[in-house]
């Protein structure tokens, strides 16, 4: 295995961490107005992810930075060809972060409701568009001899990618509802469990169709990780029905890991296939940085990655307790999410 292969694997791991962790807080955001029936309950939902949502987004920054440093040609082709989609994701993430901080600044139901819907949209839009983007990366895009994407934003909205967007959003919503059942107590936990049963069914259907399509297109051993992912989604639903929140959350997290493994396994050794001419495709070889750059990056990653993981694990441990209505003080109506 060369350093090119190692960094392709590391980037896959970074995207896996991002989708597993950001996936459940996207799910919480999408369900904010569905499960939260009053201000106290909506504050409960936000506070389940308050200490961690911004830390989860660090995985995206590191994944993007690693791609830029390890595979600069892949990065440049992605950000030029997927410019509008990535801009929409960025705007949605910015508005979502602003909404978390601003929704409690005025004691006005209309003010809070406006920011609540921004949180919902700022969670749903990236969930769908990340699915669209990765489906296109695996399926391939029109690349010319200079490795420039020659299509438009509408080129990205094909049947396979739209299915990928809906599948990823449904899996995230299921993941988020299971997380809420794990992190809350009382009536809101019961509602989260009931909703997760419906969301689990939708995730199994949409996710199964997308994975089946991916296996049909990519072939090889992708059937193995796709089967594991589908089985874990089913297991997550079964554990939810049996009131086993911890196992249900572990299952949905495992399913997302297997989905990302399926996509990257189907992609390798390409990093961006060309639908125009296979000779124009970007691979782990022709898109990578110099061996010296990859060598330095490997040492940096080996030193700092364990520290970051330890800090994030400590954060989750500190904020591991379930939240109830009593966790939201009556005088905290203007507060920002718990940190």
Outline of the structure:
The protein has 13 helices and two strands, in the order ααααααααααααββα. By secondary structure, the chain is mostly helical. 45% of the residues are buried.
Textual characterization of the structure:
This protein is mainly alpha-helical and 339 residues long. It has one domain: Formate dehydrogenase/DMSO reductase fold, CATH 1.20.1630.10. It is built from 13 helices and 2 strands. It has a two-stranded antiparallel ribbon with strand order 1-2.
User: Quick one: how many beta strands?
Assistant: 2
The percent range for helix content is over 70%
Helix and strand run: HHHHHHHHHHHHEEH
How far from one another are the termini?
A: 42 Å
What's the CATH class label? Mainly Alpha
Residues in β-strands, percent: under 5%
Radius of gyration: 20 Å
Low-confidence stretches: none
Determine the CATH topology. Formate dehydrogenase/DMSO reductase fold
Q: Classify the secondary structure makeup into a structural class.
A: mainly alpha
CATH architecture: Up-down Bundle
Count helical runs. Answer: 13
> Strands of the largest sheet, in order across it?
1-2
Mean pLDDT: 93
Main β-sheet description:
2 strands, antiparallel
Dominant shape: globular
- Tally of distinct domains: 1
CATH superfamily: Formate dehydrogenase/DMSO reductase domain
């Amino acid at each position: 295995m060369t350093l090119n292969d190692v960094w392709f694997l590391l980037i896959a791991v970074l995207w896996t961490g991002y989708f597993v962790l950001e996936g459940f807080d996207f799910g919480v955001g999408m369900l904010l107005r569905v499960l939260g029936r009053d201000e106290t309950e909506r504050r409960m939902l936000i506070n389940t992810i308050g200490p961690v949502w911004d830390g989860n987004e660090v995985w995206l920054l590191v994944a993007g930075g690693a791609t830029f440093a390890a595979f600069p040609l892949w990065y440049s082709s992605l950000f030029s060809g997927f410019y509008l989609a990535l801009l929409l994701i960025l705007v949605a993430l910015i508005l979502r972060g602003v909404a978390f901080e601003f929704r409690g600044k005025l004691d006005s139901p209309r003010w809070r409701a406006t920011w609540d819907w921004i949180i919902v949209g700022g969670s749903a839009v990236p969930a769908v568009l990340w699915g669209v983007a990765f489906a296109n990366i695996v399926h391939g895009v029109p690349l010319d001899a200079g490795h420039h994407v020659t299509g438009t934003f509408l080129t990205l909205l094909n049947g396979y990618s739209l299915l990928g967007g809906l599948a990823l959003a449904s899996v995230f919503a299921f993941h988020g509802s299971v997380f809420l059942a794990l992190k809350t107590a009382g009536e809101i936990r019961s509602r989260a469990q009931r909703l997760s049963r419906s969301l689990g069914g939708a995730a199994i259907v949409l996710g199964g169709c997308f994975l089946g399509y991916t296996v049909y297109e990519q072939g090889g051993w992708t059937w193995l990780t796709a089967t594991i992912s589908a089985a874990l989604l089913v297991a997550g639903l079964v554990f939810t029905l049996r009131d086993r929140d911890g196992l249900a959350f572990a299952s949905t997290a495992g399913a997302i890991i297997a989905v990302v493994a399926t996509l990257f396994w189907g992609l390798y050794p390409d990093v961006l296939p060309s639908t125009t001419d296979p000779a124009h495709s970007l691979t782990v070889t022709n898109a990578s940085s110099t061996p010296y750059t990859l060598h330095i990056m490997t040492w940096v990653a080996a030193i700092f990655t364990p520290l970051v993981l330890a800090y994030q694990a400590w954060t989750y441990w500190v904020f591991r307790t379930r939240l109830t209505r009593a966790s939201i003080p009556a005088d905290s109506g203007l507060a920002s999410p718990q940190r």
